[in-house]
Amino acid sequence: MWERDAKRMQDALARHDEILKGVVEGHGGFVFKMVGDACCAAFATASDALQAALVAQMAIFSEPWDDRCWVRVRMALHTGEAEERGGDYFGPPLNRVTRLLSAGHGGQTLLSLATQELVRDGLPDGTTLEDLGEWRLKDLFRPERIFQLAAPDLPQEFPPLRTLESRRNNLPLQPTPLVGREREVGEVCERLRQEEVRLLTLTGPGGTGKTRLSLQAGADLLEDFEGGVFFVELAAVTDPNLFHGEVAGALGLRESGDAPLPDLLKEYLSRRELLLILDNFEQLLGAAPFARELLSAAPRVKVLATSRIPLGVYGEHEYAVPPLSVPDPKRLPPVETLSQYEAVRLFIERAAAAKAGFAITSENAPAIAEICVRLDGLPLAIELAAARTKLLPPKALLTRLANRLKLLTGGAKDLPARQRTLRGAIEWSHDLRDEGEKALFARLSVFAGGRTLEAIEAVCDAGGDLPIDSLDGVSSLLDKSLLRQEEGLEDEPRFVMLETIHEFAREKLEESGDAEETRRLHAEYFLSLAEEAEPELVGPDQVEWMDRLEAEHDNLRAALSWSLEGGEVELGFRLAGTLWWFWYVRCHWKEGRRWCEEALQRGDAAPVPVRAKVLLGTGALMYKVGDHELSAQHVERSLALYRQAGDDQGAATCLDALGTLALEQGEWVMAEGLLEESLALARESGSRWGVCHALGALSDMAGMRGDLERAKALGEESLALAREMGDILTVTAVNNGLAIIAMLGGDYQRAQTLFEKYLEVTRITRVRDYEATALHNLGLLSLSRGDYARAASLFSEGLTLFEELLDSLGVTVALDALAAVAGERGDVRRAARLWGAAEALREAIGVPQPHDDKTVLEPFVEAARSRLDEGAWKATWEEGRAMTKEQAIALALESSDENEAARGAETA
């Protein structure tokens, strides 16, 4: 009708919507979604739903539709417990009613058995329910007993229901409903409906759910193929010559006369329109040309294959089946919405089947989410884990997942052996490989987080003993779903393993006898990469090299762990010393400190220059997490070693670090002496980077002393040198210092320009502590200009980021700044509490308030203090000092509306 007269159909559909919405709402229902011409409604009782369906059908039939555009509506009612989320409903009852609806015809109202049992004793006058018997719906779950609503003045005769029985097929019913996969089923069906797609192969590792997805797609496509849909199980067949027999058996054909079976099949299929589902084709790749021949002989036949390996024939289209969606365990949504993730929903449903009364709670939700993530969202792995909840609660199950291949056994006895354990599913794929692929697969397990082709060639075939070309081997493993490809930096592909497959590969590496040598080659390769990156981290390509180290961080961690624990201590020392600046800039402060301290605990095995570098890195990272006293001790030890080794550049860097520490503590005389010595040594040794940083620190000190002219001159000199080196991060940091000088000198426009540029570059370079500082400094500028709303927004954003980074000093300066905003808005008590809390937190970490902040904020403190009597001020200040950091942050981030209400209460 849309094709014949779109305008009339549009008008008719609008009237259709009006009737249905009116009737639903008039019977206590709620229309929660309109999808095209489908009206989805929920009711409190089944009787209300039935009455609404009856009235709606009567209204539809009595409506004076245009002769060329009349409307008939199919309706379905099912009863079950659904999950409400964002005004929509989700869960198995929704899937079931959708399948029930798809079976009906226009004007027909169908009820499930669950609904019929609730309404049968109170039917509207004159109505009956006709038992249509049991039918297999297209969800492939258990058969559904279906009833039809019959009433006077409504039609009673309809074509047969559109269920699995409506077209020829041999699709097997499934013991459990399909969970999730709505998007994937839709995409597969859409692909197969395209005229040019004759052969579509679903690929993925064992346990991904390829077979279940193919079956559901086949059920959904049943009406598209007049000759039906037929499922051919190939898992037990390894001889390609048996392929035609398996297909013929699924179709119900037998050899007759003298015609060979392949010819019989071609002749039979050439006259039909049908879909063949060829399952587990990886067992029978030699038969792929036979499948192609059948398609050539039968133009209206299509094939949906499942295989861990593409079939590799002309005209094949591939669909990589992804794992189920999983949550981020570090940012879990509320418990009531956690089941929006398919993996979690599957776990919950299968666990409830294994143990009566199982439910997700706020206590077990984190463990369930972590289990689903650790199992890579693989349906088979999740089902096996959920079955274990009969004995182990989720938290206990999670602790035992260290050896998931041993734990995840015990699948249903009626499943093929390979699907009863996760190990069986993976080993099935592994055993199909040749010896060269198996060797490469095992060696690839040494990597963590991903691998580039360059790294694979360097580590896995360093001695030229790999019995397969690395590139060919990677391509083959990729085709066979034992590797997955992701986009890396600058479009360089990275190859990753699902962790469950990774664990299996590690076992194979241990069995091979090559484990230690492969790990040594891996560690040496990534040490070489880190040492190549080190000088670039302060040059014009520093962002690209930082990104590269970030991409390889898991591999660098693995190399550190092996070298420090396995006796290659010097290699570990060199790696930690080389990486400390990367950790410092990219805010991996605690982790970097831990690696450096672990290296130092291994004794004095490393040469003096290497040990000096690790001590310097440890001190720098301690400084970032607020351990200033320990930081100074480590840097002083580093300075002594650099001087012992005659390394003036290293000594200059240590002096710069010690001078900066003294500056933070307010020890200006000491700071000046250390920084001047650092500058002199850097100039003598030719360290432009050292000169640049010493000048920047001396500029900061001049600004603190109020000598803005000298501060600006030193800053400009530092900036010119940083630009000459192409050191973007240092340029950014110096510009921040010059912006502060401009702000303190009242040149707000210049300060604004420099601060905004500072923020822009920090986001490009992904230096998150610089970003937090940029937000804070822009907030100080807005505060100085009287734009309190803008200031509050910037300070709040900065505080959130400081807290994420565990930057205790950053948190205190943000609390100070938000206190100033509160004071200017009239909320003096809140301001006093926040200032008290900030003061106490600084005392706890032993650091004074930064001079720049104190200079800007002191007038705001005095102004707020003048609005409250001395006793109240002190009492409120002490209340703040007694707060925890978490309480202070929560108070600082309270919304403006809450603050207004609090002020109103205090005034009253």
Structure notes:
The chain is of the alpha/beta class and 908 residues long. Among the domains are: 6-164, 2-Layer Sandwich (Alpha-Beta Plaits), CATH 3.30.70; 182-320, 3-Layer(aba) Sandwich (Rossmann fold); 335-424; 435-513, Orthogonal Bundle (Arc Repressor Mutant, subunit A); 767-907, Alpha Horseshoe (Serine Threonine Protein Phosphatase 5, Tetratricopeptide repeat). 58% of the residues lie in helices and 8% in strands. The chain has 40 helices and 15 strands. Strands 10-11-12-9-13 form a five-stranded parallel sheet, sandwiched between helices. Strands 3-6-8-7 form a four-stranded mixed sheet, with helices on both faces. A two-stranded antiparallel ribbon has the order 1-2. Helix 1 (6-26) packs antiparallel against helix 2, helix 29 (688-704) packs antiparallel against helix 30 (708-725) and helix 36 crosses helix 38 (870-881). The two termini are 68 Å apart. The model is unreliable at 896-908 (pLDDT under 50).
Topology:
Blueprint: H1 6-26, E1 30-35, E2 38-42, H2 46-62, E3 75-77, E4 83-85, E5 88-90, H3 92-103, E6 109-112, H4 113-119, E7 128-135, E8 144-150, H5 182-193, E9 199-203, H6 210-220, E10 229-233, H7 243-251, H8 261-270, E11 274-279, H9 288-297, E12 301-307, E13 316-320, H10 342-354, H11 365-374, H12 379-387, H13 394-399, H14 404-407, H15 422-430, H16 435-444, H17 453-460, H18 470-479, E14 484-487, E15 493-496, H19 499-512, H20 515-533, H21 542-551, H22 553-565, H23 569-585, H24 589-600, H25 608-624, H26 628-645, H27 648-664, H28 668-685, H29 688-704, H30 708-725, H31 728-744, H32 748-765, H33 768-784, H34 788-804, H35 808-824, H36 828-845, H37 851-865, H38 870-881, H39 885-892, H40 896-907
Parallel strand pairs: 3-6, 9-12, 9-13, 10-11, 11-12
Antiparallel strand pairs: 1-2, 4-5, 6-8, 7-8, 14-15
Helix pairs in contact: 1-2, 5-6, 10-11, 10-12, 16-18, 16-19, 17-20, 20-22, 20-23, 22-23, 23-24, 23-25, 24-25, 25-26, 25-27, 26-27, 27-28, 27-29, 28-29, 29-30, 29-31, 30-31, 31-32, 31-33, 32-33, 33-34, 33-35, 34-35, 35-36, 35-37, 36-38, 36-39
